[in-house]
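Known limitations

Structure tokens in this collection are predictions and should be treated as such. Users comparing against experimental data should check residue numbering before alignment. To illustrate the layout, the record for Serine/threonine-protein kinase BSK is reproduced below. The input appears on top and the generated tokens appear beneath it.
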Amino acid sequence: MGGCCISTPLVNDQPPPQQPQTQHVEPKNDEVKNEEVIKNDGFVNWPFTEFFLSDLTTATKNFSSDEIISENAEDSSNVVFKALLSENFGFVAVKRFKIKPWDHPDYFADDAKEVGELKHKRLVKLLGYCSDENEGFLVSEFMPNDTLAKRLFHQKDMDWSMRLRVAYHIAEALDYCNNAGFASYSNLSAYTVLFDKDGDACLSSFGLVKEVVDCDRRTKRNVTTESVTYRFGTILVNLLTGIQILPSQAPEMINGKDVTDLMDPNLNGNFSKEEAATVLALATECLQCEYRKSLITIELVATLKDLHTKTQIPSLETPEITKQQDEASSSSQQQQLGHCGTSQAQHEH
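Generated tokens:
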């Protein structure tokens, strides 16, 4: 396929009249941005790009339903497709907005470009965007090893040490985003936590490109299920219990409960009660957080890092597990709950 998505960012061809040059956005936190590395080496030098719709149409096989990787796509205003830009670069994820979620195209473009400047090993890299009349598109790296939701709620094989590692990695990503000036994240959940080729948990970047839509929430001072910290607390509850719940149900699920009564039975008792109690205390604190104070704190990250360090496991666990899971995938998928789907929600912002 031709067009800007392959040739323009990488060579010195004359760009189309409206094709923006790769823009450098001054980091909001120089130290944070300069010290971090991108996880996927295949796109490490990829400049942020305004894609042509024709290129994305080709890459997604005309937005074929066979390429959809987001859950409940028929009920969603936002659908994510697996796409092949070229054989040389491999797969990407393309998020298509059926309903335009911004007030003005320039707001969307500017917001997307700023997110594209973020570089962190725990954050999926945003590669570019496309705006076409009543639709918008975001393009990111493709994460090959499923979502936290699929592994935790359906495959149900995640051990305790891996759960601690996931909690630490996502807290690390959110802390980085906050320090870089992105304190808001749309619809943070187990579906926006993705596993890369090394089996490490990464945060989808799609949810960061929603600040224009979510501006009405920024003035709220009460506890809200849209708070980043509240949502992170819900993920901690997911990791403890192995149960998928609505964010609004999280406080009731843990209120007054002993940690041993909450723990996922699929762990078969293979967890540290002391560590689990610490995670429960963090979840409780997160679920009580006021919106304007909804920050993943240094102390929270440090606590999860300490827990993760005690139970550190090899980075390549997920690919090994994936091979086993692929052999049993057809039978395990039949046992999944219907509303959760088979999603890789790179997918849910």
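For this record: Residues 1-40, 211-222, 315-349 have pLDDT under 50 and may be disordered. Strands lie at 49-50, 78-86, 90-97, 126-132, 135-141, 193-195, 201-203. Please report discrepancies through the issue tracker.
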